[in-house]
Request: fold
Amino acid sequence: MSHKQITKIACLLAFVLSISFPGCENPDKYGAYKLIIQKRSGRTESLAFSPDGQRIVAGCSAIGRPTIEVWDVMTGERQLAIEHPETVNSVVFSPDGESIASGVSNYDANYAVKVWDATTGKQKLSLEGHDNTVMSIAFSPDGKSLISGCVGGKTKIWDLKTGKERLSLEGHQVVHHVAFSPDNTFVASAGEPDIIKIWDTNTGKEKLVLKHQQLAIYCFAFSPDGQTIVSGGGEAIHFWDLRTGQEKLPAGRHAGWIESVIYSPDGKTVISASNDRTIKIWDALNGQKKRTLQNGFVKSLAFSPDGKTFISGGTDQIKIWELEKLLHPDF
Reply:
C-alpha cells in the first residue's frame, strides 16, 4: 500500500473516530477555535470577512430557503439574513463594507448578480447578462467594478455606477472562480478546461494563460503583491509566477479535490481545504506544509483583514481559527 493510500485511510479514520494520526491532526488540541458559529440554514457555499474584520458574510444553501447571513465576529450573533433567489455560490463584501454581492443560480432570476445593502439587506442592484449559473464574483479593489463568472463560460466585468456590463470575456467552457489583482491591473478567471486566464482589466485583452494540467480549477488566490497566484485543481495546489507564467514552487497535495485556497494578507501563508476533510497550512515562501488539520467538509475559506484569523465553512459549523495558535502552539 502506498504512502498516499495510507494517509487517506488515516485521515478518514481520524474524522470518523475523532482521533489524531501522524500527519492528520485534531485541531482541538491547539485550542485554535476563536469562535464556532452554529448556522441556521444549510451548507455554507461561500464566506467573506467585512473590510473592518468585524462581520462575516456567508452564502448558505438550503432546500427551499437559501440565504445570505451576516454574523458578528465577536459574539457569533446573526445580524442579518437575506432571502436569496437560489443557492448562493459566491458572496463578498464591497471594499467599503457597505454592500454585499451575490451570484444567482436560477433561470427565473435571470442568473443575475445581486448587490445588497450590508446593513438593511435591501437590494441595490441586479446585474443581468449571464446565461447560466453564476459561480464566482469579486469586487475590484477600488469598489467601482465587479467581476462575475458563470457555468456558461463567460466572465463579465460590470460598472457599478451605471449597473452596465463593461466587458464580456470568453475562453472557458465553465468558469469556477474569478478575481481582480490587488493593484486592479488584471483580472483572472479559471475553470474548465484546466487553465487560468489573465486579462487586462481595462481592455479585456488576454495577457497570460496558465496551464494547470488537471481536470478543472475550482479556486485560486492572488498573493498580496500580485506577483503570484496559488491555484487548486484536482488534488494539488500550484504556485505560479505571474512574471514568467511558470510554476515557482513544488506543488502541494491533498488526498481529495481542492475546494478553496487563500493567501494571508502578509503573503507568508497559504491555506487550502479539500473534500478529503482536511485543511492544510503551507509556507507560501517555500511551499512546505506546516499543518494538516482534521475537519469536516469545507467548501470555503477566508482570511481576516489583519491575517490573525481565518474562517472555514461547509457542511459543518462556521469556524473562526486563530492562525498563531496553529503555527506556534503553546504546549
Remarks:
- The first helix runs from residue 3 to 17.
